[in-house]
Task: structure prediction
Amino acid sequence: MTGNPIYFFYEHVTLNANGLVGNPGDKHYQCYHGGQRILTITKAMRCCLSGLIGNLKTANEAMSQFYTILNNWPCSEGIMQDEIDIASGTVSLSESKASEFLQELEKKSENIHKAFAIQEE
Result:
């Protein structure tokens, strides 16, 4: 994976929340979750992602936790298509399935970090 996994939770769209193209260099993203809010990253923001991350936390707490796990994921492991599908809303999970899925990912992430720590010893 290259880049920040926050982009898996958003669709790049051409128009801002007001239905306008905006200023040159503006990038607009629509969240796949919650109210599907459109946010704009301006050229002056230099790709600051705090607005996208904060919106995801407000829109869907479980997806925000999922983002945190993916963001801390070791690059060598790679992110699977199933995980991308869940982030992009292509595959929906019930609340109980989402909780179960997050627990599995956290456990897997902890095991990977432990393996790297043992390697470094």
